[in-house]
Q: What sequence folds into this?
């Protein structure tokens, strides 16, 4: 298993959920062997490949993917759904499987993390397994089970104790997800999943992060699913107001706002932060305006709001300055979990597609706030679309729309007030209203996010483009 046919890898990549190049012309130009790990006997023998994918369209470029493969002499029905193919090794057939779906292979990863407990790190087969100080000891008999919801990476749980995320598309350098979780875990943050350890190697003299091990939150519910469930309750009988329906999400939104404020505070303490002057807001406004102009040919439906959005961005350019720090960078309800002990914020990798160095740049925390506000618009929008095909009187459809907007308004208001109040707990203003400059900045960030969403939906889910367009109409109306 020292070399592998590139065509075999190409055929497997297009069948996975995590490969980002589906639909684009590509070929595997290199399959570099990073590491080899073995179980107690000869099987499983696992090779971790770093696969280079080159694209042949106008956009071009290349990407690196981590592909760990376990090999067996005999075909194994247990792993048939993760079968990659067969190769010839010294005249005999060797069957290859995606190691993430191979419980025996993942036991080797777990045993390596256990071995790292004594000294904080251990080298195994070309990989370095590192552990956080004071992280709990792990039972090597824990059993792995892959999770099905992950798309860009692959996650699996070790019973109800730990969850391991293996990064699929990788880049040399420090992964922000590990970097931020390491700092917040050391700070004792109650609003993240505690980091237990991570996996790294060296690539051409630079660190390459391959995965991370975290606390498994056994009582956790996905934030977006929780929100859409609340919306469905609110729309079940549109004759009732949202508070009357039992679908009011305001209390949960407020608790989430407080959690985000505490995470932002911890990030300010653990990473550099600064106040930047007028040039920073002018540059921000230029970037937002450029994104708007690029969006107009793709989503011409934005045109009725374009002048008012340009005026909003011009107002940002006139602001005195901007406070920046490390932030989440890609925050929405899908990046949150509600546990029995409160809200947790997850996946600090930042915006996909951007280099790690860019994701680590300080930014305004109000970008994260705007991302969450947009999520409070998406939840009712998605539920409304799912109900659109059901027979209903015209007045019922209209009432549903009103209740959806009411749900969003309540969630937004509670989240924003709780966040702002947590930033300044000694304020005499119980409502913690935003100052006009901050409101301008937040509106601009939210509009910029909605423009991005409109492009994405137009290209991928055209029937959903109405959701961000509704937000742009509201923002443009002031």
A:
């Amino acid at each position: 298993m020292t070399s592998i046919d590139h065509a075999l890898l190409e055929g497997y990549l297009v069948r996975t959920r995590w490969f980002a190049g589906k639909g684009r012309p590509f070929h595997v130009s290199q399959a570099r062997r990073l590491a080899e790990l073995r179980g107690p006997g000869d099987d499983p023998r696992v090779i971790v490949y770093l696969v280079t994918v080159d694209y042949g369209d106008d956009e071009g470029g290349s990407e690196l993917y981590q592909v760990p493969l376990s090999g067996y002499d005999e075909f194994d029905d247990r792993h048939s759904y993760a079968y990659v193919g067969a190769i010839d090794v010294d005249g005999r057939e060797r069957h290859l499987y995606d190691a993430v779906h191979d419980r025996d292979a993942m036991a080797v990863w777990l045993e390596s993390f256990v071995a790292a407990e004594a000294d904080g790190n251990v080298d195994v087969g070309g990989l370095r397994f590192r552990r956080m100080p004071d992280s709990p000891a792990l039972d090597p008999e824990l059993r792995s089970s892959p999770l099905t919801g992950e798309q860009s990476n692959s996650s699996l749980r070790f019973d109800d104790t730990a969850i391991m995320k293996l990064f699929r598309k990788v880049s040399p350098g420090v992964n922000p997800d590990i970097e931020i979780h390491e700092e917040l875990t050391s700070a004792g943050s109650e609003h993240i999943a505690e980091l237990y350890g991570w996996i790294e190697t060296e690539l051409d003299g630079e660190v390459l992060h391959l995965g991370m091990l975290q606390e498994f939150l056994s009582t956790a519910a996905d934030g977006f699913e929780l929100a859409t469930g609340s919306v469905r309750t609110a729309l079940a009988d549109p004759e009732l107001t949202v508070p009357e329906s039992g679908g009011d999400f305001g209390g949960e939104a407020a608790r989430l706002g407080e959690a985000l404020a505490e995470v932002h505070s911890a990030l300010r303490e653990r990473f550099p932060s600064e106040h930047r002057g007028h040039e920073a807001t002018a540059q921000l406004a230029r970037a937002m305006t450029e994104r708007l102009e690029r969006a107009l040919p793709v989503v011409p439906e934005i045109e009725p709001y374009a002048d008012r959005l340009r005026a909003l961005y011009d107002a940002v350019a006139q602001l005195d300055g901007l406070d920046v720090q490390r932030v989440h960078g890609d925050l929405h309800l899908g990046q949150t979990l509600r546990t029995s002990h409160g809200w947790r914020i997850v996946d600090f990798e930042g915006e996909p597609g951007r280099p790690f160095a860019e994701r680590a740049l300080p930014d305004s925390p109000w970008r994260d706030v705007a991302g969450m506000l947009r999520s409070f618009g998406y939840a009712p929008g998605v539920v409304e679309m799912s109900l659109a095909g059901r027979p209903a009187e015209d007045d019922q459809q209209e009432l549903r729309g009103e209740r959806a907007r009411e749900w969003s308004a309540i969630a937004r208001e509670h989240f924003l007030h709780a966040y702002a109040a947590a930033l300044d707990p000694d304020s005499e203003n119980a409502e913690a209203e935003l100052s006009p400059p901050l409101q301008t900045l937040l509106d601009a960030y939210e509009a910029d996010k909605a423009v991005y969403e409109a492009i994405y939906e137009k290209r991928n889910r055209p029937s959903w483009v109405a959701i961000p367009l509704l937000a742009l109409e509201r923002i443009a109306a002031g």
The chain has three domains: 6-99, 104-215, 221-477.
